[in-house]
Each structure stands twice: as C-alpha cells, then as structure tokens.
Amino acid sequence: MHPNLVDHLTAFISVADRGSFSGAARELGRAVSSISYSLAQLEAYCGFPLLERGPKHSELTERGRALYAEARAVMEHARRFTFHAASLEKGEETRIRIAVDVLFPQSPLHKALKLFAAQHERVRLQFFTSSLNTLWDDLREGHVDFALALVAALPLGMEGRSFQQIAMSPAAASSHPLAQKEGPLTMADFQAARQIYYIGSYGVDMERSGRTFSSDVWTANDLEQIRLMIRNGLGWSFATSYFFEEEIRNGTVRILRSVDAQLHPTRTVGVVWPIERPPGPLAQILIEMVGEAMA
C-alpha cells in the first residue's frame, strides 16, 4: 500500500467533488501543485488515469468513477480509525452496553439517545432488554456497563443514581371484567382473574417470581405479546402509565385502582452499575442526558 494513500485519496475525492484542482486546493488548504502531485502519484499507483483534465474543469474517467465509491469507503474507515484512536487516548469508550428494564420509560430515554447520537455519532451503543430476573447477574458478570431500571432496593455491590419515583399499577383492557367493576377493587378480585406476567429467562422459577397474585398466571418474554394480550382482554398485568400510554389515551386500556397498597407499589427509576466498574466518561454523559430527559 502506498504510504500516503489516505492523502492521495483525499485529494482525489475533493477534485472529483469540486470539479477542479483549484477548488480542491481551496477546500483542503493545500497548494494546487500538492493536489496535482497527489493525483499523479495515485494514478501511477493504479496504473491508469482517474481524471480527464480540462483547462478549467476535471471529470472522472470511467475507471475513476468505478473507484470513486471505494475511495470514499476507505476514507470513512480512516476517519473511524482516527476517531477510535483519539477516543482511546482520552480514555473514552467507543462502545457502551446498556441493559434497559422492560418497564423503563421509553419516551425520555429516546429523547436522550437522540441528543447523545447528535453529539457522539461514532460511539456504538448496544441495548439489551432486561428484567430484575436477570439484571443483577448481567451487571456482576460484566455483560453490560450499566442498567436503566426500576428497582425497590439495590443489592450489595451495586450503586447508582435515582431519577424519579414511579408508581406501578394493575392494568386491563376496558372490556375486561375488572375494568367494568364499580369502585376500588379488592385483592380477591385480582386473585380470581388471570394475570399476565413478564419473565425474561427460561430458567426462572415461576413460583419464586416477584409480584404474582393470581392462581392463573400466563407468562411471556416479549413485551409486545403482553401488550396484545392485555388489549385483547386476556388478563391483567402490572405496568406503568408509560407502558400503556397510547392505549390509556385512546381508552382501550385502563389503570385499575385497588384498596390494597400491594397492588400499587412504588419503584425508583434510575441507573445502576457495579461499584468496581463505574461508567466511563461518555456513559456518564449519556446518563446525565437521560436524567435531564426524565426531569
């Protein structure tokens, strides 16, 4: 490979885009003679002309057009290499792995992601849907860098930041018998109706799962499946108002009220990470953006 290939390709792309050596020289802040030298070296390296040179305008040859897209691809990889090296030098991450609790509010999260992507477009974010069934193990074993979750309390070895308190409540289709009853519902009402419950792992024992109250429980590891089950009146489930936001607005799903406080638990919405592996500089920026969006 020619030692100055990146410089030569930069000049080639600029001449092709600007249509002249002088235009490329102005764009790149180089002398016209330097641009001409780079093109001559690149053509010698290829073994054929890349440009048809005119007195005022230069155009790509047929072979030049065939290589133009390849040249841009090489330059894009070179830019990524430079960005990666600079990020590593500053101690910044080039990949952030995030576990997102199935109940974490999506609207503020995606507002923050849009802002972060605009400012740090080369950082690769990886998202993993999670639940408290598997979350702590994923963090301890280093599968993810931090988690956005709804938690009641942090286990040993974890620390984090709280964004806000949020209430969970039972929800059902407006056509469901529970939604048709007058007044606050009792625990017995919920125990007599089918509960739809999220379980994210095949290895989770249903009998030891958290907030199950009915003797008739259906489980699913897919949120959209649960959403459809509830909308179609197949049972009730715990949810935040965020999860059924659209359905509540159009009246197809209702939040159910109960006299029993167990059916309206409060959770802390926040971010969690292992004490021994705190988030890196860019992860901290993203966390701050999520916190501002939640506020």
SSE topology:
Elements: H1 5-18, H2 21-28, H3 32-46, E1 51-53, E2 58-60, H4 62-90, E3 95-101, H5 106-119, E4 124-130, H6 135-140, E5 146-151, E6 158-167, E7 169-173, H7 177-180, H8 187-191, E8 195-198, E9 217-220, H9 223-231, E10 237-239, H10 245-250, E11 253-255, E12 266-274, H11 281-294
Parallel strand pairs: 3-4, 3-5, 8-9
Antiparallel strand pairs: 1-2, 5-12, 6-12, 7-10, 7-11
Task: Give a quick rundown of the structure.
With 295 residues, this protein is α/β, with parallel strands linked by helices. The chain contains 11 helices and 12 strands.
End-to-end distance = 53 Å
Sequence of strands across the biggest β-sheet? 4-3-5-12-6
Structural class: alpha/beta
How many domains, as an integer? 3
User: Helix count?
Assistant: 11
Low-confidence stretches: none
As a percent range, the share of helical residues equals: 40-55%
Portion in beta strands: 15-25%
Note the quaternary state here: single chain
Q: For the record, what is the CATH homologous superfamily label of the largest domain?
A: Periplasmic binding protein-like II
What keyword list fits this structure?
295 residues, alpha/beta, Arc Repressor Mutant, subunit A, D-Maltodextrin-Binding Protein, domain 2, 5-stranded mixed sheet, 3-stranded antiparallel sheet, 42% helix, elongated, WH_DNA-bd_sf, transcription cis-regulatory region binding, LysR_HTH_N
Write a structural description:
- The structure is a single chain.
- The chain is an alpha/beta fold and 295 residues long.
- It is 42% helix and 22% strand.
- A five-stranded mixed sheet has the order 4-3-5-12-6. A three-stranded antiparallel sheet has the order 10-7-11.
- Helix 1 crosses helix 2, helix 1 (5-18) crosses helix 3 and helix 1 (5-18) packs across helix 4 (62-90).
- The model has no long low-confidence stretch (mean pLDDT 87).
